[in-house]
Amino acid sequence: MITFMIIVFVVGYLLIALEHVLNINKATFALMMCGILWAAYSVCTHDPNLSEELIVALGDTCEIVVFLIGAMTIVELIDRYGGFNIIVKNIHAGNKRSLMWVMAFVAFFLSSILDNMTTTIIMVMMLRRMLSDTKERWIFASVIVLAANSGGAWSPIGDITTIMLWMKNYVSSLDLIINLLIPSMVSMVIPTWIATRYITAGPVEALNSNDQRIGYEMSRHHRGLSILILICGVAGLLFVPLFKSTTHLPPYMGILISLGGLWLLTELIVRRYRLDGKIEGRISQVVRHIDMSTILFFLGILLAVSALQQAGILNYLAKWLDTTFHQPYIINGIIGALSSIIDNVPLVAACMNMYPVMTDSMIAASADPSWASLFIEDGLFWHLLTFCAGVGGSLLIIGSAAGVVAMGIEKIPFLWYARKITWLALIGYLAGMIVIWIESLFMSHLPVV
Fold it and tell me: Which end of the chain has fewer surrounding CB within 10 Å, N or C?
């Protein structure tokens, strides 16, 4: 069974990677792959509790999918009302290379407040209002993905995996920021600097005054409404981490509240300004324009990975890494690389289940105290895991939620990203790990290995 499931996953993954060669939407293979994997697991195990396990897996997956639907709808609403055009008009960069630096740093810091997926959606949608050349937008969008993933790694609320580790007291907020801010920034700055060589230093294109897009017309004739929806939409997205930290409820509950509030607001706006036939400004109309194929792909790939986790394949992999290498940089480096293929959430969850947070008494009783000391709260292993699981997803376009949504919005080919961007992400990834190693030499609370 295990061998068959691994073969199915590898073949399905290759078919997803060859989407633009086969000219078949990647969601097709993701959905088939998840169904076959769960069917194989069911037939071979005859687990009487399988229905309950599948419901749990579906629930975990749908938390992310519902959040994605809400975030994409809010961002589409902002775009439809011309909010991004307001921002674009106020971004000043001397040339395209300067613009890339501005976009990278904005994505880096914004993703530490929002999550990397929401940040990428916002930034890529803005990008579509600033550049007309498709290949240039692919490069810019890829840099945004790298920056968003790096930015999410150093903040306790910047990524799902950092939230998991933070909420379970594997890491603390202040230590996480102190130890990972500089490595994360290095992992963003180096690839961005190299990526600027890919583009010309020409001037940034001005908005076309004859642009007939709905969003442009709204920002020109109803500037006040554009600003209002922009502020309320961004506030709704920022509300999500605040809601989660206050109520400890999942993020999708916060996004549903924000979506409902914006729905009410736009209903009142459409009636007040009689906009029915002009922009289709109601949420019920806007939601028809979000990319459902990307959402279905996300659903399929996450359920496929959950089947591997349920079968024990991911736990076996984690234990094999531990017994084979027994070295934190190598183990976490491999976990980060795997997170570009397999969702980082189950990988981090597997590590959390394998290694408890060590106390002083547990270290004293350990057969290898120096190794055990790596697993204290805010220990080197957990900081490395946080960094590698977050930044490693940038190595492939489908290795992170940010990459998936950028791929969906801009139709970035998998193989193009692998040729042009993967090596940049790898350089930044390794450079960040080197910085963590250097920091461990000078910070007494990070054990030297």
Answer: N
